[in-house]
Design brief:
Elements lengths: L2 H14 L2 E5 L25 E9 L2 E10 L7 E3 L24 E8 L1 H6 L4 E2 L1 H11 L7 E5 L9 H5 L1 E2 L2 E2 L3 E2 L1 H9 L4 E4 L17 H8 L3 E4 L12 E4 L10 E3 L3 E5 L2
Parallel strand pairs: 5-7, 6-10, 7-11, 11-12
Antiparallel strand pairs: 1-15, 2-3, 4-12, 4-14, 5-13, 8-9, 13-15
Helix pairs in contact: 3-5, 5-6
The chain binds oxo(2-sulfanylphenyl)acetic acid and manganese (II) ion (MN).
């Protein structure tokens, strides 16, 4: 099919509702869960603040508007290569320099929900990803890979979402070999439903935080705190994730959407 015909067909499918738009973002506000880093290592991102400028009042009689205090890595968000020291030198590695073609791409959804509810430290491995490909088809260069865990159902409570105890945070994520394999497929990025793209215990891996360290070293992207991955097919959806065009930005809160064929 010619591309103009294909896009025209998509237009019809969107207008008729045969292709649905699924919202993969969480609400962004003062109660949005934020990552807590080991205090000896880091300063945390500040709580989100929404400040009223006016609301049809003496500060502005006919309009309402707010200003925000908001870390780049807050809520459902995009990680750019420049976020990590391993990706700091890419000239196309910040939110304002990434090619926009990369913000719209097919998505592979790996269902790890059963394993993750049984084991909060569940790690997806390269072997698991290869088994998933044998069943569903190959991950192609330029596509997203996201890990469905149903962890987003905890997003309303920071304590449940971070799931930390005296041994630190416990949340599922990718192993080092998983991320190495995903990079080898040519995938454009890795996404998760948890607070960050790495597992809760990933600070103790070698290298630490492999979804950050290795993906960004390879000029690939991350998506964190995704929602509703249980509403997507394993293959066949198109992901739209365009970060704000922040100057030299390392990431951005993001209204991530998926185009999904209606069953
Ligand atoms: C800063 C430092 C470590 C990590 C993170 C941020 C994230 O997970 C993030 O939001 O990118 S692990
Ligand atoms: Mn981030």
């Amino acid at each position: 099919m010619k591309s103009n015909e294909a896009l025209g067909a998509l237009a019809d499918l969107l207008l008729s509702g045969s292709v649905e738009v699924v919202d993969l973002a969480a609400v962004l506000g003062p109660d949005t869960p934020l990552i807590k880093l080991p205090p000896e290592l880091a300063v945390d991102t500040p709580k989100i603040e929404i400040h009223k400028i006016s609301a049809y009042d003496d500060k502005g009689p006919w309009w309402a508007w707010n200003w925000l205090k908001l870390g780049e890595h807050s809520g459902t968000h995009f990680d750019a290569p420049r976020h990590w020291i391993t990706g700091k030198d890419y000239s196309d590695g910040s939110t304002d320099t990434i090619a926009p073609q990369n913000f719209v791409a097919p998505v592979n959804v790996i269902d790890c929900s059963k394993q993750s509810s049984a084991d909060h430290d569940y790690l997806l491995t390269a072997e698991d990803v290869k088994a998933w490909e044998a069943e569903h088809g190959a991950i192609r260069p330029g596509e997203w890979v996201v890990m469905r865990t149903d962890w987003y159902k905890r997003n309303g409570s920071e304590a449940e979402f971070l799931n930390a105890n005296e041994t630190g945070p416990h949340a599922p994520g990718p192993s080092v070999d998983c991320i190495e394999y995903i990079i080898s497929t040519g995938a454009i990025g890795w996404g998760s439903e948890t607070i960050g793209t790495d597992a809760g215990q990933a600070g103790g891996m070698e290298p630490p935080f492999p979804a950050h360290s290795l993906m960004h070293k390879a000029n690939r992207y991350g998506l964190a705190s995704l929602c509703n991955l249980d509403k997507l097919p394993a293959k066949g959806a198109i992901l739209i994730a365009a970060p704000l065009k922040i100057e030299n930005g390392t990431g951005s809160p993001c209204r991530v959407l998926a185009l999904v064929p209606k069953a």
